[in-house]
Amino acid sequence: MAAMIGRKFILGLVLALGVSGAGYAAAWRFSPIVTEIPANQRAAAITLKNDDRVPLNYQLRLYKWTQADNADQYADAADMLVSPPAVTIQPGQSYQVRLSRRAVSPLASEQSYRLFIDQLPPPRDPNNSLGVSMIMRAALPVFVTDRKFAVQLSWRLRQDASGLYLGVTNSGTKRVRLGWLTLQPEGQAPIAFGDALIGYVLAGAEREFKLKPAEGTKIPVLTKGTRVALTANDSSQRNPITATVTIQ
Question: Would the pLDDT of 235 be above 60?
């Protein structure tokens, strides 16, 4: 049965990488941040490193990653395994986790997964009267991909009383990871959205993002039909993205 992950399930989820915190939740690292497995290969490895002074325990789960209804969706990955599913790493030591495909076969488009790494809490401290243990979690993107796969994007912009929204349809065979967005309405100054990640749009998926301008920047009221020059960065591509979009 597919195991879906909802918002309430992901309590304590840390999508930002390089997680740190006080006590047992400190000093753990992993590499690479994004794993790409060539379509003609079966396996890849991710290294976990314990920089703390105490042993750290981890639980690892791999989920198929899709996008629908303008949200990320996760379900059990039946075509790939993570080994081991749990590990204890001693202070100052590293451990390689292996991701293995069940079969190598031709792909029509890129396949997307997320590896959830939970740092498990230590045994309960009897001196902790609150009885509360926090769990740190990272969610690492994993892709089975091919050099022939490519992004193919179409864009929409709309504005209402609640803000400015960018719609992105990726009809290509490779994901796009959008950041460094700038919009320049015709005859007006550019609107910068900083270097923050806008978000992923997976192959064959569609997303809409509410845009937050860089600090100190205001979004003007844009009338329907206004032409807007768009530039952005895709972390998986060398060349910047450029497009002209009309306000709907």
Answer: yes
